[in-house]
Amino acid sequence: MSLQEAPRSIRVHIGIFGKRNSGKSSLINSLTNQSTAIVSKIAGTTTDPVYKSMEIYGIGPCVFIDTAGFDDVGEIGALRISQTKKAMEKTDIAIMLFCDIVTKEEKDWVLQLKKSNIPVIFAINKIDVIENSQHIKKSIEDEFDASPIMVSTLSGEGIDKIRTELIRALPADFEGESITPNFLQKDDVVLLVMPQDIQAPKGRIILPQLQVTRELLDKKCIIISITTDSIDTALAELKNPPKLIITDSQIFKTVYEKKPKESLLTSFSILMAGYKGDLDYFVKSASAIEGLTENSRVLIAEACTHAPLTEDIGREKLPRWLREKIGEALVIDVVSGSNFPEDVSGYDLIIHCGGCMFNKKYLLSRVEKARCANVPMSNYGVVIAYLSDILEKINLL
Hints:
Distance between the termini: 31 Å
Mean pLDDT: 87
CATH class of the largest domain: Alpha Beta
Oligomer: single chain
CATH superfamily of the largest domain: P-loop containing nucleotide triphosphate hydrolases
Radius of gyration: 24 Å
């Protein structure tokens, strides 16, 4: 990713679904005006989902997801279909592509998409080569009460209509979402406490800190960025206390004990929870810690897939702090990236990272999975504040 590119996690995700050889890859190439996806007459050319970040006029930064056909067969086909289902969890808008009359497979997939509140755009591809396009159109109208867009990726017919429908289907809150508090105004002083430890790549700032900094600049706030050892000096140099202090969650208690009483306090992780997750649910779920015993099971989920590091927050610190409170026999599983269990019902608590590498749709799909299993789910920053006995004293925004 170049310095000019928007992170994938803040782009709208557009998933293309359909049977094998329905022209999903060709459609992406037509929409992007590039040879983005491999095209072949051989059914099943697309195996694992392919993610392509693009900038589309009227849509802005987006990610197209080219999925494997959901009519794939055999043992390998079943694995490909399972990956397509995972891609659906990240999808903000779906395009369902047809080149034949509606079958049970399309009905089932559309039902799953709608259950997940994902808007679906219906399109019939290859209208220049199939003979029964009007018959297909009527079957879609009868089954889904929707008028499909007639498309030819060869001639370009219907491509502009799909772009128009994508713009109409954009999530209402996609533009204008704010990571930082709405009460911040021009010239408000915000102190960012950012320890540059082993988890921060040398020469770079981690994504949540970067996103928060950029948004504060857009709001014309006065930003002071420091490491943990400079808190006392920075506060002493300020004529007035900062309006807000945003800290790394790992040093929540240290910063809380030093902050002026006039200053509000939150963390980057809690800001991300409010931006992408369900902060109210995370706060409510934190109290489940009191009910844990050494016979309990806890799942810690990281979005990143980095190799384990010394004093890693998810793999080292949180497990240590939990066991200090509950007992050494507490069972803690750690997963990373997309390796989130399909069945979470065996856990007594899930603790998720801020999710800066995931889009909002994907993180909320995990929250919903926890809710459906009646498993409390919280967030790194919320849990650390709870364990530090300051959750009720910080600003949850």
